[in-house]
Design brief:
This protein is an alpha/beta fold. Helix content is 31%, strand content 25%. One of its GO terms (biological process) is polyketide biosynthetic process.
């Protein structure tokens, strides 16, 4: 008999309807900062207002725009899975762009119509490792249910509205002259997965798409192993471009 595994049985992905390209960068910068050059695109009045958004205002925008994105992605994943909402036992939610308490996992669970007793776990501020951390957490929770011989289904959801922080990033670049590649890398969106521990599978539930055979995180023995280096690149001194290179240096 095959050993028990945790499987991905449903997926969902949702992006906002607006696409903003680099051509908007000069307009944004010239409107907000004179005699400076920076980055990023958009077409909403908040980018050009006099004051920088507070954390509370950014969180309000996440609730207005980010939670609906999360709901759409979660709905896709649940429909792809084909199971019953009441069979979802766990919710693992991740975000770096909302710091409200209770978290968006509570609002999302209500909107989706999940059980009042669904076990919710919120991961906040885990940055780029967040989605992997959410998968690892859900994996551990479902393996725990497996040890108890109980059926378990986990909705894993990540949602971000990074663009609401663009003006704050630009303000730091202008005032402190510190490069920040964040505005050029990150956009808005949400993705979702449904995981199953394979116990008590009902008719209509999708067969596993992928199996997760293990999950392990490791603390490195020294700082600075993961970071950013700014490196000049070009064919001549007059044709140089600054490249941000993510560097991983393994510890030996």
């Amino acid at each position: 008999m095959a050993p028990p595994v945790v499987s991905v049985v449903g997926t969902g992905l949702q992006y906002p309807p607006h696409k903003l390209g680099p051509e908007f960068v000069p307009k944004l910068v010239s409107n907000c900062y004179t005699d400076n050059v920076a980055v990023l695109p958009s077409n909403h009045p908040l980018w050009f207002q006099d004051h920088i958004l507070t954390n509370t205002e950014c969180d309000d925008l996440f609730k207005k725009y980010g939670i609906p994105l999360a709901q759409d992605a979660a709905t896709q994943a649940i429909e792809d899975w084909g199971g019953n909402l009441m069979d979802i036992t766990h919710v693992v939610a991740m975000t770096c762009t909302s710091a409200s308490s209770p978290g968006f996992d509570c609002t999302l669970s209500r909107r989706l119509g999940l059980s009042k007793h669904v076990r919710r776990t919120l991961l906040s501020g885990v940055t780029c490792a967040g989605s992997v951390a959410a998968l690892r957490t859900a994996y551990d929770l479902l393996r725990g249910a497996t040890q108890e011989g109980k059926p378990a289904r986990a909705l894993v959801i990540a949602a971000e509205t990074m663009t609401v922080y663009v003006r704050g990033w630009l303000e730091t670049i202008v005032k402190e002259s510190i490069p920040n590649i964040g505005p050029t890398l990150f956009g808005d969106g949400a993705c979702a997965l449904v995981l199953s521990n394979g116990i008590g599978v009902k008719e209509g539930e999708r067969e596993p798409i992928w199996n997760i055979h293990g999950a392990q995180s490791t603390l490195l023995d020294r700082p600075g192993c993961v970071g950013i280096r700014w490196m000049p690149s070009g064919r001549s001194e007059d044709d140089q471009v600054s490249l941000a290179i993510l560097i991983w240096e393994p510890h030996h």
